Amino acid sequence: MDATERQEALKRLDVLVGEWVVEAEFPGLEVPPGRSVFEWTLDGQFLVQRTEAPNPAPDSMAVVAVDPETGGYTQHYYDARGVVRLYAMTFAEGAWQLLRETPDFSPLDFRQRFTAQVGEDGDSIRGVWEMWRDGSEGYQRDFSLSYRRIRR
């Protein structure tokens, strides 16, 4: 991947930059909204997401980088529980996916994925987190997650 392709891959993420209200729908729970901010850091080489979330979700931070070999993205995730995870990420034509199917900094007790779609207005994102535990038949819904931009 050359420098031009890397910059194009980073530019695709510009739609995420800004401040968002985040609403999670957990089965059987009423959860107040949280807040998430996406911003560029280190001269625009990485996209950082900081999220303040109400219980049961933890506050978190994620750093998105372009993989120089594949041109895909990697999301490095950290949260207030001390959890550290590494997700393979795709983002193209408004479709956003995070995928964790191999052990990383922690054992792989379950597989996990997030799939979402950016709305046509560019100011909304609707998605779902799913889990696949050993012995289950494929991915099962964990919780829904929606973003609504309140500031660019």
What's the layout of helices and strands?
Blueprint: H1 3-11, E1 18-25, E2 34-41, E3 46-52, E4 60-66, E5 73-79, E6 84-92, E7 95-100, E8 110-118, E9 124-133, E10 140-151
Antiparallel strand pairs: 1-2, 1-10, 2-3, 3-4, 4-5, 5-6, 6-7, 7-8, 8-9, 9-10
The CATH level-2 architecture is identified as Beta Barrel
Could you give the order of strands across the largest sheet? 1-2-3-4-5-6-7-8-9-10
Q: What would CATH call the class?
A: Mainly Beta
Largest sheet: 10 strands, antiparallel, barrel
CATH superfamily: Calycin beta-barrel core domain
Number of domains: 1
Mean pLDDT: 94
**Can you write the helix and strand succession as a string?**
HEEEEEEEEEE
Name the helicity range: under 10%
In the CATH scheme, what's the topology name? Lipocalin
The backbone outline, from C-alpha atoms, is globular
Q: How many E-type strands?
A: 10
Contiguous low-pLDDT stretches (5 residues minimum) are: none
> How many alpha or pi helices?
1
Class from secondary-structure proportions: mainly beta
Strand composition percent: over 45%
Gap from first CA to last CA: 29 Å
Rg, nearest Å:
15 Å
Which features does this protein show?
152 residues; mainly beta; Lipocalin; 10-stranded antiparallel β-barrel
